[in-house]
Amino acid sequence: MSTMVNFVSGPLVWIALVTFVVGTVVRIVLMIRTIKLDKTVLPAMTVKHSLRSIFFWTLPYGSRSMRTRPFFSGLSYLFHLCLLALPLTVMGHAVLWQQAWGIRWWSLPSGVADVMTAVVIFAGGIFLLRRIMSPEVRNVNTWRDYVILVIVLLPFVTGFIAYHQWLDYRTIIILHMVSGAVWLMAIPFTWLQHMFMFFFSRAYMGSEFGAVRNARDW
Ligand code: HEM
Ligand code: HEM
Fold this sequence. Notes:
By secondary structure, the protein is mostly helical. The chain has a single domain (2-212), classed as Fumarate Reductase Cytochrome B subunit (Up-down Bundle), CATH 1.20.950. It is built from twelve helices and no strands. Helix 8 packs antiparallel against helix 10. The model has no long low-confidence stretch (mean pLDDT 92). It binds protoporphyrin IX containing FE (HEM) (2 copies).
């Protein structure tokens, strides 16, 4: 059992981090190569219009499309805020970084992190329900989309159970570490790559609308 814990909290973390970083870089390089084949995209892009679009689309309710569905936009904003902040600021992670690399890192009070974890699980549950119940979402869904959503939520569910010491701690923490590694590795290979593609598509749309059509895209 303890060799299992050593593996999932050691080499597996490295495998996951390297896969995440290398996969992401390869994705971006391939995308830029494809863009270059189209002679019209890059020359039409401007820094000003790109940053303007990214700014308004990352602001809460900054775009018209967010304002037209206020509940889901707010939920999605909270979901993303907690989801991105937690892996970097959970106390349990900071402890492991200190042990492994001697890094002293700022961490959230554990009660706050716990509430934020509950927010991610709650919002994710609503997204899952929407995917099952809303006809317009269900029609474009495949089984892969459900699997990906479950992959996204598992580290939060298992982290939550571990923190509260429900069930067998060792088993849960191993599941947590494995699901955390899968989470990271899934990002470059699934639609979770919107994490970085978002900025490119906003830059492109912002430039197309701003510099070419003289309009806003938010
Ligand atoms: C891959 C390596 C990972 C390791 C070794 C790891 C390890 C841990 C440990 C030891 C804890 C503390 C549990 C306790 O309080 O007893 C924890 C909590 C937590 N982890 Fe991870 N984790 C990993 C990945 C992730 C990822 C990728 C995420 C999120 C995407 C994540 C989210 C969380 C959350 C949200 C908690 C706290 C839950 C709460 O307080 O309610 N972990 N993790
Ligand atoms: C800076 C990083 C990110 C940005 C800018 C971003 C942006 C977005 C946007 C614009 C949407 C669609 C609109 C909406 O439903 O509100 C979305 C949906 C989603 N994102 Fe992200 N995202 C980021 C990172 C991530 C990460 C790291 C994950 C998980 C690993 C994630 C998981 C999701 C999920 C599960 C949905 C869809 C929810 C559903 O409707 O079923 N996002 N994201």
